[in-house]
Design brief:
This protein is of the alpha/beta class. It has 2 domains: about 120 residues, 3-Layer(aba) Sandwich (Rossmann fold), CATH 3.40.50; about 180 residues, Hypothetical protein af1432. It has 15 helices and 7 strands. The strands form 2 sheets. The protein has a 5-stranded parallel β-sheet with strand order 2-1-3-4-5, with helices on both faces. The protein is elongated.
């Protein structure tokens, strides 16, 4: 186990010009990384396969041909899809079209980002951190997409844990009760699965804070739907669910965020996910409060019909959770 942890903290540097990027090592080692430098594409491929680095820093000179081929070969192996590759380049803006074409070629070949010499150590670490977050997000989204396809095909995703309904299953059932199908149904289920993926861009200290957030912390927290939408845009079917991720905190009365949409201007998938997300939050413990009972959570949802929640969805949802419970839909 210890060897595995060590290998995941490895940064592989692919550099064919000895000493040119010697300044990389100190900031990486200070951040807790082990650094391995290799001088050729074939050595890089072997090192990626054997050592499984956390990220690859690939030097590409003015011509870029050898480095780009190494990049393509690393990315061609499905086992490496989760490994960020950051290109270090001497290309500068004054090269003009050549610089632009080099960056475009690298992105097409599978690079996650570019760093242009000279750069600060903190810029290098920030780029690695952002690339790791994006790769993790894409892996989570891929897994969620598979689950959403399964759910849309009527496979059982209703239970996230024993005795507790899961968000994907609730979204699936509620969307189905409205007659949604195809892309709308998949969007609602996938949106439920990845609705808070924008939390990857929020500091952990804010996410896990046991008490009330300060105004500044709350403003930072409110950015997660927009961050999530930006992450989603890199996914091929994002049109089905990116609007749901952006708008799942809008309110029926127009006092939600980020765009203060009101009523039916809120996408139906976002209204569905917003409702099941609120219920899920109520019935689970949070750092600042204990979970509500199902009955208490349903009472709160009834009270917020026509204010926070679509009043047309509330009776469907309540009857879905508790078929014998009386439904009192209150409109604002």
């Amino acid at each position: 186990m210890a060897g595995h942890v060590e290998s995941r903290r490895l940064i592989l540097v692919v550099e064919d010009e000895s000493g040119r990027h010697a300044t990389l090592t100190p900031p990486l080692e200070s951040a807790g990384y082990e650094v391995l430098t290799v001088a050729s594409g074939s050595m890089a491929l072997s090192a990626v396969a054997v050592r499984q680095p956390e990220a690859v820093l690939l030097s590409v000179g003015a011509t870029g041909s050898d480095g780009m081929e190494t990049l393509r070969r690393i990315r061609a192996d499905p086992a490496n899809h989760g490994v960020p590759i950051i290109v270090l380049t001497d290309l500068t803006a004054d090269i003009g079209e050549a610089a632009f074409e080099g960056i475009t070629t690298g992105l097409d070949a599978g690079a996650d980002d570019f760093l242009e010499l000279p750069f600060e150590g903190r810029d290098l670490l920030a780029t690695i951190r952002d690339a790791l977050r994006m790769r993790r997000a894409m892996a989570e989204m891929h897994a969620a997409h598979v689950a959403a396809q399964a759910s849309a095909g009527d496979m059982d995703l209703d239970m996230a844990e024993p005795g507790r309904p899961g968000m994907a299953g609730l979204a699936h059932r509620l969307a189905g009760s409205l007659g949604l199908d195809g892309a709308e149904l998949r969007g609602a289920v996938f949106g439920a699965l990845v609705h808070d993926i924008g939390n990857l861009g929020i500091p952990e200290a804010i996410l896990s804070k046991p008490g009330p957030l300060t105004k500044a912390e709350w403003e930072a927290m409110r950015r997660h739907p927009e961050i999530g939408e930006n992450i989603c845009r890199s996914f091929p079917s994002s049109r089905e669910f990116a609007p749901i991720v952006r708008h799942h905190h809008e309110r029926w009365d127009g006092f939600g965020y980020p765009d203060r949409l009101r009523g039916e201007a809120i996408p139906i998938g976002a209204r569905i996910v917003g409702l099941v997300d609120a219920f899920d939050a109520m019935v689970h413990d949070r750092p600042f409060r204990v979970a509500l009972t199902t009955e208490a959570a349903l009472d709160e949802i009834r009270r917020e019909a026509g204010r926070q929640f679509d009043p047309g969805l509330v009776p469907l949802f309540v009857s879905m959770i508790d078929p014998v419970a009386p439904v009192d839909v209150r409109r604002s």
